[in-house]
Write a structure and sequence with these properties.
This protein has about 250 residues and is an alpha/beta fold. The chain has one domain (about 10-245): NAD(P)-binding Rossmann-like Domain (Rossmann fold, 3-Layer(aba) Sandwich). The chain contains eight helices and nine strands. A seven-stranded parallel sheet has the order 3-2-1-4-5-6-9, with helices on both faces. Helix 1 crosses helix 8 and helix 4 runs parallel beside helix 5. It is globular, with a radius of gyration of 18 Å. The two termini are about 25 Å apart. The relative contact order is 0.15. The model has no long low-confidence stretch (mean pLDDT about 95).
C-alpha cells in the first residue's frame, strides 16, 4: 500500500516544533496540504515558511474551548475538510514528586494534555463524520504505558490519551474514522533540550550518554523517526490498524 497522501488535508495540532513539525514535513513530502497549529505565533509563522506553499499556520490554545472551535472553523472554511489529524500538543513534564505537585500545575497539565486532546478529537471527529471519514493519530508516550517517578501527572495524562484513542477508535471505525496513537520513547527535540538547558555542558553530555545507554538501540530517537510512524498510521498502508498504540522507543520497553 502507498504512503502517498496526495490531495489530503492534514491538520497537525502542536505542529510547529519537535515531533509535530517533523510530521508536518513528511506530510508535505507525501503530497498533503498541511495546517500546523500551536499557541506560539512566532514559531507558527516560521514553520509555515519552512514548510512552503503547501502549508498554513493557524494559532490555537488547546486548553481553551473557544480557541479550539475557532481553529476548526478556520480550517474548514479555508480547506473544506480534514482528512488526517495529528494531535501532538502537550505540556512538558515537571520533575516533581506527586505530593509536592501544586494543584494549579496538575490542573494546567490535565487541562491541556487530556481536556485539550478531547476537544481536538471532538472537533476532528465532527468534521470527519461530515466528510466521510479520515484518520487521527494521537501522540502519547511510553510514559503512558508505565509509571514514571517524579512525573505522575504527566504519566496520568499520557495514559488518558491512550484511553481516549482506544475508546474513540471503537466508536467511530464504522464511520470510516480510523484512530490510533504513537508512544515515542526518548526523542531528541527542542523541548527535551530546553529541559536540560540549565545543566552545564558536561552534565548534559553525561545525561545524554546515560539515557542512550539505557536504550537497547543505543541512542535517542530523531523526531523524524517518530514522524515516519505517524505518517504511516495516517496512510492507506496501515488501513487495518485500528485503536493501536504504536511504541517507537528503540527497544526500551521490549
Amino acid at each position: 500500500m502507498s504512503l502517498s497522501l496526495d490531495g489530503k488535508v492534514a491538520l497537525i495540532v502542536g505542529g510547529t516544533s519537535g515531533i509535530g513539525l517533523a510530521a508536518a514535513k513528511q506530510f508535505v513530502a507525501a503530497g498533503a496540504t498541511v495546517v500546523v497549529s500551536a499557541r506560539d505565533s512566532t514559531k507558527g509563522i516560521a514553520a509555515q515558511s519552512l514548510l512552503g506553499s503547501s502549508a498554513a499556520y493557524v494559532g490555537c490554545d488547546i486548553a481553551r474551548p473557544s480557541s479550539v472551535e475557532a481553529l476548526f472553523q478556520s480550517v474548514v472554511a479555508r480547506f473544506g475538510c480534514i482528512d488526517c489529524a495529528v494531535n501532538a500538543a502537550a505540556i512538558a513534564p515537571n520533575s516533581t514528586l506527586l505530593h509536592e505537585t501544586s494543584n494549579a500545575d496538575a490542573a494546567a497539565l490535565l487541562n491541556a494534555d487530556v481536556f485539550g486532546q478531547f476537544l481536538c478529537m471532538k472537533h476532528e471527529i465532527e468534521v470527519m463524520l461530515k466528510g466521510g471519514g479520515g484518520t487521527i493519530v494521537n501522540v502519547s508516550s511510553v510514559n503512558g504505558l508505565s509509571g514514571v517517578p517524579s512525573a505522575a501527572m504527566y504519566s496520568a495524562g499520557r495514559h488518558a490519551v491512550l484511553g481516549l484513542t482506544r475508546s474513540a477508535a471503537r466508536e467511530y471505525i464504522a464511520q470510516n474514522i480510523r484512530i490510533n496513537a504513537v508512544c515515542p520513547g526518548a526523542t531528541d527535540t527542542p523541548r527535551r533540550q530546553q529541559r536540560i538547558a540549565h545543566l552545564a555542558p558536561e552534565a548534559q553530555g553525561e545525561l545524554a550518554a546515560q539515557t542512550a545507554q539505557a536504550i537497547p538501540i543505543g541512542r535517542l530517537a530523531a523526531a523524524s523517526e517518530i514522524a515516519s510512524a505517524i505518517v504511516w498510521l495516517s496512510s492507506p498502508a496501515s488501513s487495518y490498524v485500528v485503536g493501536h498504540s504504536l511504541v517507537v522507543d528503540g527497544g526500551l520497553s521490549a
